[in-house]
Amino acid sequence: MRVYNFSAGPAALPLPVLEQARAEMTDWAGSGMSVMEVSHRGAAFRALAARAEADLRDLLAIPDNYRVLFLAGGATLQFSAIPLNLAPAGATADYVNTGTWSGKAIADAARYLQVNVAADAVGGGYSGVPPEALWHKSRDAAYLHYCANETIHGVEFPFIPQTAEVPLVADLSSTILSRPLEVSRFGLIYAGAQKNIGPSGLTLVIVRDDLLGRARAELPPVLNYALQAKEGSMLNTPPTFGWYLAGLVFQWLKAEGGLAAIGARNQAKAESLYAYIDGSGYYTNPVAHSCRSWMNVPFRLPRAELEAPFAREAAEAGLVNLEGHRLVGGMRASLYNAMPAAGVAALLAFMRDFAARHP
Ligand SMILES: *Cc1c(COP(=O)(O)O)cnc(C)c1O
């Protein structure tokens, strides 16, 4: 039996995608082999790779002057790859600290350049985004980095920062493809796959042409965006199965109506959960209303000792992975693209029932 999986990542994948992968698992594209067993340099896989990129370009309306890279190593490797590709040693980069993930990006970048924390939400307990007018940007920043959706704290930027000539770099791991996006505002976008794209092990990088070629000489070639762009992300063997599955997810998104339709669905899902939480007089969400994530909804119960029974009873009802991140506790429901509205409705019914039974 399929459950409703509210995990923040690795997260639920669309059922039609999994079923297609199962159907062609042992004989992909008439090859008599699984997609995992064919050469990444063969014509069939190259066609798959090209279609996945074309579909992604379609979905996000990615302008022609951006390269799309399908890399290995997770979003975390990009925390280091970004400073090493975009800035010389001794340069300064601006970072906005709005939670655990931007904090990790800052810690890694600080090993390679001067980090200027232009704004810090730690004082507010990571419950919102400091207004951009109050940020302290440096004049000569190599780039400005932010995390558009803090997966653990459930904080999503309600705006795209304005950086004029300074390239804008964004960790979109947990919000990419959840709604339309103005790609031209960014210098570089990156996202680990295991939230809204596909399985873990694949990382998407979308980078503007003019930012290629700034890499430091000592950078390992597999981390070098310019080299990977030149080689079609095949400098070495790419994560082929992840690339294949991501391609199926992109096809599914297009069949579902594209990102405008998906965005409307995601908004409705999130708003129904927040409205219930706010009106319940029982559950609470600490995030400023304007910064509430559509993808990750953290919430608390009236007493901490109710958390374990809540998670246990929810799992018994087929609603799994509702525990909050170990760093912040509480509960969290992640509502990525693959979570159907019926899953959110089932969660709301369970939450109502639980509250009535544990006053
Ligand atoms: C999950 C996540 C990461 C880390 O991804 P890995 O693939 O585990 O390296 C980074 N940033 C954000 C916003 C995430 O949600």
Characterization of this structure:
The chain is of the alpha/beta class and 359 residues long. The chain contains 9 helices and 13 strands. A 7-stranded mixed beta sheet has the order 2-10-9-8-5-3-4. A two-stranded parallel sheet has the order 1-12. A two-stranded antiparallel sheet has the order 6-7. Helix 1 crosses helix 6, helix 2 packs across helix 6 and helix 7 runs parallel beside helix 9. The longest helix has 23 residues, at 258-280. The two termini are 31 Å apart. The structure holds pyridoxal-5'-phosphate. Pyridoxal-5'-phosphate (PLP) binds at residues 9, 74-76, 101, 147, 151, 171, 173-174, 192, 195.
Mean of the pLDDT scores?
Answer: 97
User: How many DSSP helices?
Assistant: 9
Total beta-strand segments: 13
Euclidean distance between termini CA atoms: 31 Å
Radius of gyration: 21 Å
- The helix/strand order is EHHEHEHEEEEEEEHHHEHEEH
**Sheet with the most strands, sense and barrel status:** 7 strands, mixed
Low-confidence stretches: none
Task: Write the topology of this structure.
Blueprint: E1 4-5, H1 15-23, H2 43-60, E2 66-71, H3 74-86, E3 92-97, H4 100-109, E4 114-120, E5 144-147, E6 149-150, E7 155-156, E8 168-171, E9 188-192, E10 203-208, H5 225-230, H6 240-255, H7 258-280, E11 296-299, H8 307-316, E12 319-320, E13 331-334, H9 341-357
Parallel strand pairs: 1-12, 3-4, 3-5, 5-8, 8-9
Antiparallel strand pairs: 2-10, 6-7, 9-10, 11-13
Helix pairs in contact: 1-6, 2-6, 3-4, 7-9
The protein binds pyridoxal-5'-phosphate.
Residues 9, 74-76, 101, 147, 151, 171, 173-174, 192, 195 line the site of pyridoxal-5'-phosphate.
